[in-house]
Design brief:
single chain; Ferritin; Rossmann fold; 4 domains; 9-stranded mixed beta sheet; 18 strands
Length: 671
């Protein structure tokens, strides 16, 4: 069984052993940690005897054998593994003592180096060992994992293949239990595109000798994006020292990522978690050369709210100085977080994938708009690539890759490139969750070719930063009202809060509550009866106000309630007198409107051309101006398709009608 997909299938089928003792959504809590354990067991096989000999030789001489055992644990090429296990047991020898397999396996787990024990602590593997033993499943599971068909030795399964096995198992388990399969990793085709995008213009720089580059993923999942970046750079220049960093919130996924990194010889201490990057940044003082991420879409950040809000109060001394988006979507928080991790006097590049919401959600003055404003005005945003639909396991919606940098090349300065790559995909023979399309190598090359062009065509738009900004201006129109105490308008009084509260009691005593509400209703009826005595239609506020005050004088009502009564009995009337206060026209809130005026356009000229032509008495309240930014991606690539001719539509209707009539006739003939 050399094919990794065969191994995935075999490991997946082991979950059938758990049926009855575990619920379906719990299978992965056993199979994933035991797969990791089996991988460690296989990797340690080469130097097992050397580690055991070193342990037995020095265990009575030194309290801390960590350095000695790390030196003894090596691969077949003599490289230190970075972890060890000094137990005499392995998967095969555990089977030789079935009666004590639980006790011996616990000893085996406890004999790992601390960095590996941290991994299994996050799997809660000891709890499952005890539970499996109690269900008489432990021996059987170890036996199955010891079969040659699931040989995970590095000679049989490369590190890259092992990472893919982990991802495929997670996807299948998540899909089975109706969880979000794509939360923890991104399809390899999308990862390849994102990797190429952040390194595309760095080929020359990365060919220098003795470079050290730090790469970071704040939502690293199983670590696939980080690994892809390192592999790509090493293909360009294997002398570059790549240091990988990441943070993951999910315990099991964090454990898998850390295990995978450890086995690959990476510094697993750079993988932080399990905790939220937004509220618990465990790499607070670090800056990075390259960043890549696929943060969760439309996920509430309510659990992070207290910490994030506190951080935002620091302004740009913290990570969220540009603003906070609404609570139901934290994508723009992750974007700000990554931008805060850029190096100050060196070039940093970012590739992050989002859905459409961060592009345009939020009006001028909102947190989302202010974040976009800060990003664009600081010239961080280099390009946005619109991807095809149905690329991801957990969603079929369209997604977008943002490419950001703190040092744009000269030809891109002050500009943002939009690339419509929605047609660049191949249909998959078999769907994987919501993933029905894939990016082939040819598709990726075509997208990269589009990115490298700055010439506009049907798939490329290059715009100035200011093209995405606008001034939101409040437009007022004067209040012109007529007033009448008609039955229809008197009904409006019940929508006036202060009036409706007259018949509301706060008493907790049921009898007293009923009595007070009846008294309030009588008061309302009396007020309405008094207003009915006002006859005629008025077009002057002051005159009608005098009539209302006279009618309601005996009720001792507040000035605010009387004002609301007048408004409730009014309607807009273009022929009525203007309502004024201190000689100035009062604005009518019901007629208030706003205009989004592009930053490149003169506000006064726009107002004269687009507003005053139609409403000559309107004015702008410039004190309420707000500058907003939005990236309405689809409008730049919209192609008008004229409706079909009526004759064609009519012919189709006649054809379908005839077919239906024929079917009905056949049914009647049969009966």
């Amino acid at each position: 069984m050399n094919n990794f997909q065969d191994k995935v299938t075999f490991i997946w089928d082991l979950a059938d052993l758990l049926r009855g003792s575990y619920k379906r959504n719990e299978y992965q809590k056993v199979i994933l940690p035991f797969t990791v354990l089996k991988r460690f067991d296989s990797v340690l096989e080469h130097s097992k005897k050397d580690v055991l000999d070193a342990y037995n030789k020095y265990k009575d001489q030194f309290d801390n054998l960590d350095h000695i055992l790390l030196d003894a644990a090596r691969d077949k090429d003599g490289n230190q593994l970075g972890f060890y296990n000094y137990s005499k047991y392995d998967f095969k020898s555990l089977l030789q003592d079935p009666e004590h397999i639980e006790e011996n396996l616990m000893h085996y787990i406890d004999s790992f180096s601390k960095n590996v024990q941290d991994i299994f602590d996050n799997f809660y593997i000891k709890n499952h060992v005890a539970r499996l033993s109690k269900s008489n499943l432990l021996f059987l599971l170890i036996k199955k994992f010891s079969e040659s068909r699931v040989d995970l030795h590095p000679d049989k399964v490369s590190n890259h293949e092992m990472g893919t096995i982990f991802e495929e198992l997670i996807r299948k388990f998540a899909e089975q239990s109706n969880e979000e399969a794509g939360e923890h990793f991104t399809p390899r085709d999308v990862v390849e595109l994102m990797t190429r995008l952040i390194f595309i213009e760095n080929g020359v720089h990365l060919k220098e000798k003795n470079l050290i580059k730090k790469i970071y993923d704040p939502t690293c999942g199983t670590g696939g994006m980080l690994t892809s970046c390192k592999d790509f750079v090493e293909e360009l220049n294997d002398s570059v020292e790549i240091v990988l960093y990441g943070q993951e919130i999910n315990e099991e996924i964090y454990a898998i990522c850390k295990a995978d990194m450890l086995i690959k010889g990476e510094d697993s201490g750079n993988i932080k978690g399990p905790s939220s990057t937004l509220s618990d940044d465990q790499l607070g003082n670090d800056k990075f050369d390259f960043m890549i991420s696929n943060p969760p879409y439309g996920r509430k950040w309510e659990q992070d709210k207290e910490s994030v809000t506190k951080e935002a109060q620091k302004g740009f001394e913290g990570r969220f100085g540009a603003g906070l988006p609404r609570i139901n979507d934290g994508q723009l928080l992750f974007l700000q977080h990554m931008l805060s991790k850029m190096k100050e006097n060196e070039k940093s590049r970012i590739a992050v994938i989002t859905n459409g919401s961060p592009l345009f959600t939020g009006d001028a003055g909102s947190g989302e708009s202010n974040i976009r404003k800060w990003i664009i005005e600081n010239d961080y945003l280099e390009a946005i690539i619109g991807l095809p639909e149905q690329l991801f396991y957990n969603t079929g919606i369209r997604t977008y890759v943002w490419v950001l940098t703190n040092e744009k090349p000269e030809e891109r300065a002050g500009k943002i490139q939009l690339v419509d790559a929605s047609s660049k995909f191949k249909k998959m023979r078999k769907s994987l969750g919501n993933k029905r399309n894939r990016l082939s190598s040819e598709d990726i090359e075509e997208i990269l070719e589009l990115y490298c062009k700055l010439e506009e065509n049907d798939e490329i738009k290059v715009l100035d930063n200011e093209d995405f900004g606008y001034t939101k201006v409040v437009v007022e129109r004067p209040m012109q009202l007529n007033f009448e105490a008609s039955e229809e308008r008197l009904e409006n009084l019940y929508s006036v809060p202060a009036f409706s509260k007259l018949a509301v009691s706060k008493s907790k005593d049921p009898d007293l509550k009923l009595e007070e509400e009846l008294e309030g209703k009588k008061e309302q009826d009396k007020i309405i009866a008094a207003l009915r005595k006002i006859e005629g239609i008025f077009d002057d506020w002051d005159e009608f106000e005098s009539e209302v005050k006279g009618a309601l004088n005996k009720f001792n009502l507040s000035a605010a309630l009387i004002k609301n009564v007048i408004i409730a009995l009014s309607e807009h009337d273009d022929t009525a007198d203007y309502v004024t206060a201190k000689g100035k026209k009062k604005p009518d809130g019901k007629l208030r409107d706003t205009e989004k005026i592009p930053l490149k356009q003169d506000v006064d000229e726009y107002f004269e051309e687009e507003v005053l032509k139609y409403y000559s008495d309107a004015w702008m309240d410039r004190k309420k101006d707000k500058v907003g930014y939005e990236i309405n991606f689809t409008q730049y690539f919209y192609k008008y398709e004229p409706p079909r001719p009526l004759e064609e539509i009519e012919a189709d209707i006649k054809k379908v009608t005839a077919e239906i009539q024929e079917l009905i006739k056949e049914d009647l003939d049969e009966t």
